[in-house]
């Protein structure tokens, strides 16, 4: 089995935390990092916690520079994952199954259910919500009708035709979560509804996910042991989500989050800095790419004269688009 | 197994054809009809293939009228189908399996396959499309079709029905263009595989063959009444948009390309006509009217369903009227309509001293100027209209000389900064054709 994740250098502390937890609970698995950078630093390439580091530019995404130019760092984590899983399934032939985890995840126990399910099916998905709510407060559900039933932070795939079809199909949809709604229909997949899987701030309010106890690197939920947690907190929604929990439950959740944050800070003090700049964030001339230029470039998909957009500058790209608009208006 | 359907009076012929087709292939299956009208009549209740006809309002304990007021007939039948499944489970305690079919469907083979599948699971969902190619439609409108859904009596199956009723009570809308955040009704089913245990997807080409998925199902005829879809037995066919399909089937070119499909549609429409569908399909829906008999405006429906305040304050909207809601949105009582006083015949009764005459205000200089401008503008407008023929001629000439459309319109647009009498016309004649 291979456990993989994608990250930029700035998120390396999260990756190390994940890889350590994978080592603890799945010592047989190989941990592969897909690094979205132009180069690998020596310390990362020879890190004892990473079995392999693969640069995303090497996995055969067509027209990679034009592709990555359109994405910000946080979008890039999403957009490359299915191509990365497909690459691992094709070339790392010593393992039959690949489990992709977001780098913000941490394991708290072995993923037995997912591994067993992968023996019979091609794809494993985890839902955002795992139990029905019979009251008429359905704001969360309404929200997830648009965002997608399944969270793309946990994808299991087995080496066969069906999984490959799924991965190419999903890459075509830019790995957006809402397309996963169609996977139970179109592909041979299985949904792991264990409450210990993929606990995150958006589903801690569920009855089966109430904490029984929280210790160091171990926690028990009402529906069983806690197995993996997604600590994704991009928009600082973690603290806000605690308001729907009881006082004691919020305390448990905060304790878990603090343990994780402390561990991350520990890695950061070892030199894996979260301020590290992203190598795809700059033109060759050293200028930082502005969001407007990314949007302008992805809007105009046919810029054949800009084969390598990194060779240009903000002024150039925005100017080209401006001129094009002027042309259209005339 | 019990099969249920929800039907309004105008589609009753379709429900009768469905009942007939079910009993033809599955004589042991009972068929329950939930009639989405205020009253039943003998024609419905005594039809031999309906085992039970129940009014939709009797299938729920809640305030049925209030919920129905928010929906059109199609949306309301979506809500009523969840109620019907629940009703069947409570009133037939020995039944283990319930299948809901839309009234526009027809059963074309014994449903043994479906039964054995349902024995293995709690909820059986039917996809809109089985293969890739139509995802961009399905991702917004839901991956599953809510017109064919089977539930078995298990904890999670019963739980699913309760959950579904709660959702459809408020969100059973057909189109989401009014407010982008409101989901369409089948989209709720996308959450079901995540929320409930034992949910299976019916991946078989022989179910729910409808006009939306003809391009991925090839229908062939294997015997007199045996049809196949993609080489497998065709179990349930959905005849949606029947008017359009009938027109297609009567088109000889279409019938030549899709012989089996045309035969199926012709058979179906012939059966429908046998039940007097052509006479009854325009029958009005009884929930479409207030108690007073006034028809409900669709805009009023939107006002009511998007306003929780109105729902709490007026739990029985059918007693009210369109006019009431047009005022009611401001949270006020509607103004009492005053009876107009009788016009008195005696003109001398009006005392002229009470009517105060107001002197006309002297015009300011700017007003005089503006009036003049307006007058001139109007005159120019007339001349512009008179000269359109001339302008066309000039345009044609300019185009022949090779000027682009943009340049022509620019060079012939006359600005009226200094409007003069006949200014427009003279300017036009004087204006030379600016070539590039």
TrEMBL record, chain A:
Protein's recorded name: Uncharacterized protein
TrEMBL record, chain B:
Instruction: Supply the InterPro entries for this chain.
Output: Nucleotide-diphossugar_trans
The name this protein carries in UniProt is Glycosyl transferase family 8
In terms of superkingdom, the source organism counts as: Bacteria
